[in-house]
Amino acid sequence: MSEGLLRRWAAAALLLALAAAACDRSPAPFHETLRQRAGAGDPDALAWLLSAAEQGHGEAQASLGLLYLGGEGVERDARSAARWLCAAAGRGSGEALAAIIAAAEAGDPGLQNTLGLMHLHGYGVPRNTAVAVRWIDAAATLGHPDGQYHLALLYGEGRGVARNDSTAVAWLETAARAGHPGARNALGLRRLNGDGVAQDSDAAIRWFRAAAEQGHPGAQNHLGQAYALGLGVIPDDMEAMYWFGAAAEQGDPVAQYNLSFLHARYGNTAEAVRWMRAAAENGYADAQFSLAAEYMLRDMHAYAWLHLAAEQGHEEADRRRQELWEYMTHDDVSLAEELSTDLTRGTGDPNPERVVCAR
Question: 89 and 104 in contact (C-beta within 8 Å)?
């Protein structure tokens, strides 16, 4: 048996054992034994735990988070601990939630921020904005860049606190200087638009570039837009295409839409269509409307894309949808609305675990 097959077989066997252990009320469930072995330095046990955790097994996620939190069998890693404990708590692990609360109360800023986000989104705990603000503020005050960034967003939105753009900008600047890519991108947008801070295109580009080079897809798209439009830089379509492409490959629908138009400008029809469809399937209303225009001779597909865009508030799409509705049969409209669901299957609301835990 090849090493790859052996490892896949072992991972499958592990999952079956974990599932059986979940029903077993014996004093030493298998996952606890596995955690002990991994904590003692057994690399196979650690690899099996990681495989099960990545496949969504809550007990394995809790075990892995606790190992990273305590530095048992692995190098202590606060970010990995927060990620796995959060994921496990979201799946109902009381042990993981208790560990997060204990660490937060003991002053761990990463888990204070995690606990705040869990309360903000109602993930694994009741939604409570006041409690969320308290924990995120605690993390920010202790110098945690994620906490500073999220506290800035709360002040910028007036969510759980009185809206205060000056305070939001101050926290963004603190997090941006500490290297937080999301804060750098957000600060770039504020500088570009003069939103709560003096307008400064040069500073905006510097922040976008810093975040883009860290791989932040929103900043990569904004830098691409700057090159496409000549905002604070000399216009350069090749640079724009590069940055749009970097963001598009990460699944950013706005960048996919922008990249489609650049490819169309240079006659790359196949690439233009590919990226327009990707943006539409990722839920971007402008792309859905544009794709509908390509399908106007095929009423059902056109109606399906227009329906998706109109349901997001795209006014022109709604007007065109009404025009098509006037001469389509009731059955055709019903089929087109069913088709619209298939066109974007797998997209929609973001995964709460990814939003709250994996930062």
Answer: no
Give me the mean pLDDT over the 136-153 stretch: 98
Angle at which helix 109-121 crosses helix 129-141, to 10 degrees, equals 160
**Can you tell me which residue has the tokens 């327009």?**
276
Does residue 5 have a pLDDT over 80?
Answer: no
**Is the pLDDT at 18 greater than 90, yes or no?**
no
Give the span between the Cα atoms of 13 and 219, in whole angstroms. 43
**194 — phi, psi (to 5°)?**
65, 40
Any idea which residue has 């939190």 for tokens? 69
Mean pLDDT lowest among 48-62, 83-97, 281-295, 331-345: 331-345
In this predicted structure, the answer to whether residue 35 has a pLDDT above a threshold of 60 is yes
> Could you tell me the pLDDT band of residue 24, with boundaries at 50, 70 and 90?
very low
Of 183, 224, 239, 242, residue with least CA distance to 207: 183
Q: For tokens 């509705």, what's the residue?
A: 325
